[in-house]
Amino acid sequence: MVTATTATAATTAAKGTSTGNSTAKAAANGLITSLGTGSGVDVNSLANSLVAAEKAPREAELNSRVTKAEGGISGYSAIKYVLSNLQTAFTDLKNQSSFNTLVTQISQPLAINLSTTAGATIGTHSIAVTQLAQQQRSISADNVPGFATPFTEVNGGAAFTLSLTNSSDPTPSRVFNRGGNAAPSTSMVMFKAMSKGDTVTVNGLTLTANKSLNATEVGEMFDQLDTKTAAAIAAGGIDASTINTDALNAFGTFSGKFAAGYSSGVNNNGVLTLTSSDNDAADIAPPSAVQFTNNIAISANATTPAGIVTAINSANLGITAQLINTGNIATPYKIMVTGTSGGSNAFSLTSLSQRNTEVVGVSFGKKLQTAQDAVFNIDGMDMTSSKNTVTDAIPGSTINFTSVTMAGIPASVVFTRDTSTVSTKLDALVTAYNDANAMLAVVSDPKSTVPDYGATLVGNSIVSTVRSQIRQMITSNSTTPGGGLNALRDIGFSLDQTGVLSIDKTKLDSSLKNNFENVVTLVTGNRENLSKFSVAPAGTAGEAVRKLTTLLGPSSTLTTQSTNLTNKITDYKKQLADLDTRMTALLTRYNKQFAAMDSLVGQSKSLQTSLKSTFDGMMASYTNK
Description:
single chain, 625 residues, alpha+beta, five-stranded antiparallel β-sheet, 12 helices, 21% strand, disordered N terminus
């Protein structure tokens, strides 16, 4: 116990100080007596002894206070450390998703693999993959020689141009339905994917794509345009300037005006219905599109296979180029260009010399692989994707297709609940609680001999308060009981007579197996990432995290007490420094005073000798000796 040890140390210091004082005083008395007899004196030793006798008690007291304060800081730090670990254990249990750990079983793991998030739920799914998504790959030339080296001159060293266009026509199709005298007309527009730079015009409004857009994204750009508002009627439609925003600009930019007379509805996967304001209205003008051609300039100093590859890759147009060594002895090098996966990302790349002819050996007309979408069926629904990674087909799951599934045999995917992970987290809570409780005992036990922390906060009321608070976190009823579960004790938690926490595994396993949803409610309140400012009931774990956050906060008692002790140590050390300064000045004064006394004694001795000699002479003359 630091307090007891400190008291013992202080007593020992006091006894030592008393003995030192007696010794110093005895020495001083002896020296002063010697001064009285006029004997030689070590005045420096005398001065130092007197200063030491005066300094020692105060110095011992201040050092004792520093040691005690440092012990207190160590004790508070130890408590905050174990409480932080307890907070972490509760945090791992406070969200509903903390309990939603699933085990995945896949019948055809060579064709499908997947990962889950908190949004996944237990259940069984069937997945049939009939086609994988793939990229288009084209080679620089077919049935003509390649290039002898990566630096062979192409096109006679003259500059030329590569032209890149997307092979998919972005022009939307439409189905018109005239409403007649009693109903408005509708025009259903089916959008297609757009490449960067493509333009699509619908009802007078033109969209220029600033990035590659799929059909759904294009539909979203045109949806919910209402020409029946007063502003639209007055303007004769909806002007592009009222639509364009900085956020929208990341996808595309509008020009023109969406003509009055028709309003667009809500986009449905790239299908948008325009409805006329009047009954029996005529159709809108046919939607149109212009494919944008990106030109890649090949300068005269880059007219080599390596230079062409660099120019294509530097253009950053969604295709990549690389040199391929075909193994041909004389002309092994050809250029392979690869696009992005998905059928809508098919492309055409052609070369054009300054004479408006194709550059020999750089036609890119030979396709080694065509671009295509993944085609699959999940739970009876046919789907496609431009990629082999699908994130929105099964909630909370990311599915990766690695090959097609067996013909006519869908893969089975089964999600089952993994209660072992939850059990492990609850075990961690028990460990963290017992560690915290044990540390509180160590710092407050006067007999503790644990280095650094033992007996550092004996009799401190804060320890008792913290112990009571964390105990209540375990024993109190949940703010969100359910299904007959009111507190952690109902799922197997218990405290023994010594305050040690444990879990009845049989009871816990039964609760997780038969009453899982109510266990989640009890512990989490079915909350997810609840704001620290929220006052909503948060379950046992959520409420504990709130209380521990307060206990460990910058304005908490633990923090302020530790800060106060730090400030006290600073003050004690200043007092020690001031004591040193005063004692140094006292030593200087003593040395000066004792030097003067020593000089006076010396003069007295000289006079004594002279007088004695005179008296001895006089006595001799009187006695005739």
